[in-house]
Amino acid sequence: MTTVPLPSAAAKGTRRFPKGFLWGASTSAYQIEGATEEDGRGPDIWDTFTKAGKIQDGTNARVACDHYHRYKEDVAIMKAAGFNAYRFSIAWPRIIPAGTGAVNSKGLDFYDRLVDEILKAGIRPMGCLYHWDLPQPLEDKGGWQGREIVGPFADYARVVTKRLGDRVKDWMMLNEPNVVAIFGYGVGEHAPGLHLGEQGILRALHHQNLAQGSALRAIAAEHKGMTLGTVTNIQPSRPDSDSEKDRAAAIRWDAVWNRVTVDGLLRGAVPDVLAEKMAGMVKPGDMELAKYPIDLLGINYYSRCTMKHEEGHPFDAWWGDPKVDRYTFMGWPVQPDGLYDLLMEFKHLYGNPAVYIAENGAAYEDTVAPDGSVHDVERTRFIREHIEQVHRALTDGANIKGYLAWSLLDNFEWAFGLAKRFGIVRVDYETQKRTPKDSYKMLAEVIRNNAV
């Protein structure tokens, strides 16, 4: 039998990244913090969704990873891996429990402590203002379906940045507004669980664009030297077949999934294919408010969208067959080259703005070895292959500033509950013990060498 020698460490580390490249991971408040009823935090739409029995495995986020009490341990884990960046989110209901009005000082105190700990570890804190945890009182007034939410979001942004802006210089407004709109308001799979179809999706997208533009202006007016941006999920949309109907479905889905958010922010425009459907909701001055010259855009990537024409679904488009031989535990196709495709598309379509990968990772069924270690071979391969595609895009001229894995910790995976594990660090939910997985160790090596 012929054996092939493994490549040397030097050979594996020939893909070098620029000096100052951002390396780390991302998390979100609702998924890791727990303490949902402590220190004055108010209820949000995910608390309501959970209490209504909508979580697949019947779990909840009342404890989750208990990060609210264990944040020092989690920051130490990041420091040990050599992270130089960490994107976390602020919980709106922890800061302004009713969504408007009285500010909860204990909520701000927690983020004070967290930010100080992150900085002490030599890590760059990147704050995200909204990662899906809308205060329930605002949803009761219409949530992202109404224009009335624009002012409260800008006010919330002012409150948070006034308190933390002396130390946190990177601010992301939203996380994945397309997912909020489609799954929260369109098809009901996420909180608030509404089935409002195409118009509900487009209203939620448009009002998030307006709130984002308003918040960006509010922060810029009161602070100098901030790096301002947002985070969106971008997935290249490809047709399931060469049929005219499938090609048209892929174009429509691309407009909804990718372009409403990005074109609104970077171009101040509505995609042509959706102009008629959005005509009644776009008022004079809206697109000027939505457009803003951001400094940094976070891109979340998991796979391509392979779309087919299917009536009965919003925009007569739904997922087709990606024709791959690898899937994650979420049932998502593994398509690392799709990340290269979207980065190059972004370069050519939007003038090559500064971007970073704000989320990229995979859920798999991890097995704990007898010695307590977690050898997550598939996740390790997934992350390495995607980092390689980032380097490929960098080599071809894309303006990429960093890579943050999703996620630092196993956590509460929204409607799936605790059953789906994305973390590079395992969390035993009974004991709250943290165990770095092989994917964590691989990422730490990449960071140490600034190469893959």
Protein architecture, described:
This protein has 452 residues and is of the alpha/beta class. The chain has one domain (16-449): Alpha-Beta Barrel (TIM Barrel), CATH 3.20.20.80. The chain is built from 16 helices and 13 strands. It has helices at residues 9-12, 29-32, 45-51, 67-81, 92-95, 105-120, 136-140, 150-164, 177-186, 197-222, 244-267, 275-278, 286-290, 336-350, 377-395, 438-449, and strands at 22-26, 85-89, 124-130, 170-175, 227-233, 237-239, 296-300, 305-309, 317-319, 355-359, 400-406, 425-427, 434-436. It has an eight-stranded parallel beta barrel with strand order 1-2-3-4-5-7-10-11, surrounded by six helices. It has a three-stranded mixed β-sheet with strand order 6-8-9, with helices on one face. The protein has a two-stranded antiparallel sheet with strand order 12-13. The protein starts with 8 loop residues before the first helix and ends with a helix. Residues 1-11 have low confidence and may be disordered.
